[in-house]
Amino acid sequence: MALIALAADKGSPGVTTAAVALAAVWPRRVLLAETDPAGGDLVYRSTAAHGGPLNPNTGLLSIAATARRGLVPDQLWDHVQPLSGGLEVLVGLGVAEQAAGLVSLWPTLGRSFAALADSPQAPADVIADCGRVSGDTPAVELFPHAALVLLLSRTEPEALARVRDRAAHLSARLHGGSRGAAALATPLVGVVLIADPAGSGKLVNQVNDMLVHAQTGARVVGTLADDPAGADMLAGRKRGRLDKSLLVRSARKIAADLNQQYGAAWAVSAQAQQGHHMQQPQQGQQPQQHQQAQQTHQGQYQPSYQPQQGQPQQPYQPQQGHTGAGR
User: Fold this and answer.
1) Is the peptide bond before 73 cis (omega within 30 degrees of 0)?
2) What is the band of 269 on the pLDDT scale with cuts at 50, 70, 90?
3) Which residues lie closer than 8 Å to 299 by C-beta, 6 or more apart?
4) Cα distance between residue 67 and residue 65, in whole Å
5) What pLDDT score was predicted for residue 104?
6) DSSP secondary-structure letter at 215?
7) Count of C-beta atoms within a 10 Å radius of residue 100
8) How many CB atoms within 10 Å of residue 38?
9) DSSP 3-state assignment of 131?
10) Quick one: which of 99, 106, 238, 257 is 20 to 30 A from 197 by CA?
11) CB 230 within 8 Å of CB 245
């Protein structure tokens, strides 16, 4: 139905952790894309479905070698790897220097991510981890194609001031004209607060008042629990009941709220824009990994987030002991 882009202004509020948590509990099939120009983290912190490490050369880097000839959305599956618990990921760049090879490809990626929801063969939403956005970072080229841009922020006064200013800047860049009208425009700019769940309701109201007063066009869409233990479990650095962690419980609420509020609108918008965004493959052309993606979806491996009617889905369970640096 949609491309959801996650980003932060400064520091390390936990964009990668938030993106993985949301993708793990997303109510429909989802592709998690690492699109941080500074490089990805999942190669260092996650285990592939076969039990070994992820291949750093299969993902955004391999797309760069082929997308200059055009990119059909279903071809994204050629570059996807499943994590140990079934979550499908597009591994990011290894180092920031590799981003130079994608300079002209970010809009193409944005269009393909947005159009993947309309694929007649293997449709999926895309959650993109864009890392930090500031200055002329190329990841912002994805934003015009997104249904929702989520800015993550911690709750220190300086962090809230920065997310207010970043939201105003993005709204002006994406929507132009009166910033106050951006609340009705697409993509919607939302804020996710990383906070202690206790007493977060009052904080959300205060931050919303600040965003409205500054005419940013943004609003707080949810609170993600500041849960280091849950983040360690999500990364496979610690054992425990991940589905019972504050992190996953809060991510599940955000995912449910977003889909309840915007899911129907995203579906209508996707159908209306299908002809505009989709690039048709040549007759007889079928990406190899696309066939694998179909087989995967039909049972080659079963993602552990199998939603049952009337019940929330369960997040994937990473294997233990595969650790590394991460955000």
Assistant:
1) no
2) low
3) none
4) 6
5) 82
6) T
7) 10
8) 16
9) strand
10) 238
11) yes
